[in-house]
From TrEMBL:
Key word Glycoprotein present: no
Record GO biological process: cell wall organization; cellulose biosynthetic process
Active site: D146, D451
Transmembrane segments: 25-45, 57-80, 523-542, 605-626, 646-672, 684-702
Protein name: GOLD domain-containing protein
Length: 930
């Protein structure tokens, strides 16, 4: 009885457990304090917007808009960490409970281009999933080749032969990982010295297979001997191209065939090659179309209730991954509600300190787990186990129980030929016409992020997803190893996600009332990556430009309003660092992730935003780009050394270098203002600090511009552009270092006086004026105006009479208000351009300067004075140019009027002459008649 009760108790135990992550309370306290800081920033901005007459109004408004966006965006990111949930399956309970009564599983592997995704890499992924610790009679593997390449088919044929040796080898020696490429790369020698010969034999078989495949690809075609190996090669002829070919379905291993066994005599899993029909006049809907064809073809051949889909570069790294996933689907209490189990996307080629931030530890370990806590774990397109019914559009109902263990093997009794012919029809271009495929069934069409929108639709039908992040990664792939590849990948993601937000599937609209609010917010965190870049650009451009122009955008450090800015920045970065360290990252890896976060929003997501908007307006079309998986040896070497790759002439790289230089010169200009003592350091301190952060983040960019000489540096074709831009920035810095010139253009009737405060005695005061024009259209008098300059005590310093223009300088004997009074003796209003500024050098008052620094300060002062003079002379010349232009215009106008009057007078005189001559002629004619 005790044993029986123990068995009942074992049968009632759940197959997985759910646990809420620790630290939830601490995070919520942190979130509340940051929210208070953000609101304080909003209050400060709204209370201190400059008036229309004040300088920097639009810059201030731009910063305010960016901070409003960042605050709103941060609020929705709270959903990702508000309820972080962890899952723990118990595969031992699964095996003890169900034994051999496990459901069949179909595995989909997708590839699209043999040039970008090498066939040798593709078959390593196929071999890894063929070798799962799972009954082979319940395992079917499908390779979808969207490139329709005979090279990929040949590689799969070779893999079908090699698998007879590889699968028993893996199971005999518990090989991990079960991708031969990854395994032999990680194990140069066998760990068990008692089996070296068998290990070497399998390795040689694998290397020989790779050599044959690569040799065929190099030759550009298959020989007759190879084509005679399998009837499938008859599908390829001279008319077959990547974008124009018929459906091709070939069952290379029939799992039902008793003769399909490995070297140990054990049954082999089913292996199928599929190339769906493609025609130039039919849309193929990219990966979504490929997946939907796989769903239909697999339903015809094996029809397993569970589907696993992986990308061709994501090999299986855990041979028990299927059993772990089934723990969620087959749990008695909650399993029937689960639609899919999503594993994280991880990589095996991560460089030292992850220079391109491919690991995304916080995303995988915290954010997706937070989405799972809201029952909103997203479908990420690879490494995902699906319940076939939910993927095919079935609505979840409370009465549904979905007993998967009753569906052990559903292979049909038809012959291989019949299955192939019946499947070809399902993969034709015309099959989906008039159906719900791509709408209510399968993956959704019309979006680059078809996986994300498909997962959202499944959840809105009532199904629950699960996110599972095991200690041993279930799948490992190839991460982008150049900047350009990383940009292309993130641009595709950003564009696809923003398309969803702007479509009818926006979670706040489509999913309202169907999924939790936290899940809606979590989805939008990613869907809004693209517009995030616009707000960030404000923070990258406006502060540096305003720093060069001495326009403060933030409160002074001594002000209480500085505290919210400082706290929000410090708290958010401290939280980010704590998360990175908790996830096993190093500080340097965290810093690299900050750099890539900035780079992607400067480039990938900015272009994704632009392309999405233009696409919505009908100016561009959606295009799916595949990330190449192979790079040159020199590029790979730099990647492994942790050196960033800039060796492409792309627009994205130009933007990064341009913004980096802008912030570098903004920072340099701010520092020089502090060193030269303009008394503005405190008001611009935050902007200087902000530029400094951007400069430090961009150090690899400056190295690639000025220091590196390898092929990974910024191309020489871009150097000229950057040199020109740098020159403009240098001039901007130099001009910004000049003190403000109080230029004014005014209209004078009789007398106008201006005051200028000279702060220090013995300063040099420069002033100039130009009479631009008079009000009268016909008036132009060279008499000019009078100007009297008086000192603080009323003493007369200078007196100018009847001047149309003048520039002068004098040394102020006293500090205080100096008055400049203009008198207009003309009866017409005159427009006058007036400039005044003073030159003061701080070293005059600092007698304790070091004797070695004083000559340097004197040189700086001379340069500064020269810059004053250049600007002063420039303004003087511009005013005179304006005057001359107006005079010329007036003279031209008067000349035209004169010509018109003369023409009118001559015309009138001519008419009068004709009239008088006619009268005279008539009189003479009358007299002659008499």
């Amino acid at each position: 009885m005790g044993g029986h009760n123990g068995g009942d108790e074992e049968a009632s135990l759940p197959l997985f457990e759910t646990e809420v992550s620790k630290g939830k309370l601490a995070y919520r306290v942190y979130a509340v304090t940051v929210l208070v800081g953000i609101c304080s920033i909003w209050v400060y901005r709204s209370m201190n917007i400059p008036t229309a007459e004040e300088e920097g109004r639009w810059a201030w408004i731009g910063m305010f808009m960016a901070e409003l966006w960042f605050g709103f965006y941060w609020i929705i990111t709270l959903s990702l960490r508000w309820n972080v949930t962890l899952r723990y399956p118990f595969k031992d309970r699964l095996i003890n409970r169900y034994g051999d009564k496990l459901p069949a599983v179909d595995v989909f592997v997708c590839t699209a281009d043999p040039g970008i995704e090498p066939p040798t890499m593709v078959i390593s992924t196929v071999l890894s999933v063929m070798s799962y610790n799972y009954p082979p009679d319940r395992l079917s593997i499908y390779l979808s080749d969207d490139g329709g390449s005979e090279f990929t088919f040949y590689a799969l044929l070779e893999a079908s032969h090699f698998s007879k040796h590889w699968i028993p080898f893996c199971k005999k020696f518990s090989v991990e990982p079960r991708s031969p490429a990854a395994y032999f790369a990680q194990n140069s020698n066998p760990k068990d010295t008692t089996v070296p010969k068998e290990w070497l034999d399998v390795k040689k078989l694998y290397e020989d297979m790779n050599c044959r495949i690569e040799s065929v690809i190099e030759k550009g075609g298959t020989s007759k001997d190879i084509r005679d190996q399998h009837k499938g090669f008859l599908e390829w002829n001279s008319e077959v191209t990547k974008q124009d070919h018929q459906s091709i379905v070939q069952i290379l291993i029939d799992g039902r065939n008793p003769d399909a066994v490995d070297d140990d005599g054990h049954q082999m899993p089913t292996l199928v090659y599929l190339a769906r029909e493609k025609r130039p006049y039919c849309p193929h809907n990219f990966k979504a179309g490929s997946m939907n064809s796989l769903i239909r073809v697999s339903a015809e051949i094996s029809n397993a209730p569970i589907i696993l889909n992986v990308d061709c570069d994501m090999y299986s790294n855990n041979s028990d991954a299927i059993k772990e996933a089934l723990c969620f689907f087959m749990d008695k209490e909650r399993g029937h509600m689960i639609s899919y189990v999503q594993y994280p996307q991880s990589y095996d080629n991560i460089a030292n300190n992850d220079i391109y931030s491919n690991v995304r530890s916080a995303f995988n370990k915290i954010e997706l787990s937070g989405m799972d806590g809201c029952d909103g774990a997203p479908y990420c397109g690879t490494g995902c186990f699906h319940r076939r019914e939910s993927l095919c559009g079935v609505e979840f109902s409370r009465n549904y129980r979905g007993e998967l263990n009753s569906l052990c093997n559903t292979m049909k009794d038809s012959s291989v030929h019949e299955l192939e012919q019946g499947s070809k029809v399902l993969a034709n271009c015309s099959y989906e016409k008039g159906t719900q495929w791509g709408k209510e069934m399968g993956l959704v069409y019309g979006c680059l992020s078809e996986d994300l929108i498909t997962g959202l639709r499944i959840q809105c039908r009532g199904w629950k997803p699960v996110y599972y992040n095991p200690e041993r990664k279930a799948f490992l792939g190839v991460a982008p190893n150049t900047l350009d590849l990383a940009f292309v990948q993130h641009k595709r993601w950003g564009q696809g996600m923003f398309q969803i937000f702007l479509s009818k599937y926006c979670p706040f609209i489509y999913a309202r009332g169907k999924i939790k609010l936290g899940a809606q917010m979590g989805y939008c965190v990613y869907l809004l990556f693209a517009p995030n870049s616009v707000a960030l650009l404000n923070y990258l451009i406006i502060p540096s430009i305003c720093l060069l122009r001495s326009i403060p955008l933030f409160p002074e450090v001594s002000s209480l309003w500085f505290l919210p800015f400082a706290y929000v920045y410090a708290a958010r970065n401290a939280c980010s660092i704590a998360e990175a360290l908790a996830c096993g990252e190093t500080l340097k890896a965290w810093w690299n992730s900050q750099r890539m976060w900035l780079f992607h929003r400067m480039t990938s997501y900015l272009f994704a935003f632009i392309d999405t908007i233009t696409g919505q307006l009908g100016f561009s079309q959606m295009a799916f780009s595949i990330t190449p998986k192979v790079v040159g040896n020199d590029v790979l070497k730099r990647y492994e050394e942790g050196t960033m790759e800039f060796g492409t002439s792309s627009v994205m790289l130009t933007i990064i270098a341009t913004l980096s230089l802008l912030n570098l010169f903004g920072f340099a200009g701010g520092i020089l203002k502090v060193v030269w003592g303009y008394g503005i350091a405190e008001g611009l301190a935050v902007q200087i600090g902000l530029c400094l952060v951007v400069v430090v983040i961009n150090l690899p960019v400056y190295q690639a511009l000025f220091l590196r000489d390898d092929n990974g540096r910024i191309p020489s074709s871009l150097e000229k552009q950057f040199v020109e831009f740098a020159t403009v920035l240098i001039l901007a810095v130099l001009s910004s270092l000049q003190q403000e010139v109080s230029g004014i253009r005014f209209v004078i009737d009789r007398e106008e006086c201006f005051s200028h405060n000279v702060e220090y005695a013995m300063d040099t005061v420069h002033f100039s004026f130009v009479v631009i024009k008079s009000e009268g259209a016909w008036h132009y008098s060279p008499d000019g105006v009078d100007l009297v300059v008086k000192g603080p005590s009323g003493e007369q310093i200078h007196d100018f009479r009847d001047k149309t223009s003048e520039k002068f300088q004098f040394v102020a004997q006293k500090n205080g208000l100096h008055r400049f009074c203009f008198t207009n003796k003309s009866p017409y209003h005159e427009t006058i351009d007036f400039d005044v500024h003073e030159a003061h050098f701080t070293y005059h008052d600092e007698h304790a300067k070091d004797e070695h620094l004083k000559p340097l300060l004197e040189q700086i002062a001379r340069i500064e004075e020269a810059l004053y003079n250049i600007q002063f002379e420039q303004h003087w010349l511009e005013a005179q140019t304006d005057q001359q232009a107006i005079v010329n215009e007036g003279m031209s106008r008067r000349a035209i009027h004169k010509v018109l009057y003369q023409s009118a007078a001559l015309t009138g005189a001519g008419v009068l002459q004709v009239y008088l001559l006619r009268r005279l002629f008539e009189r003479k004619l009358g007299m002659s008649r008499v």
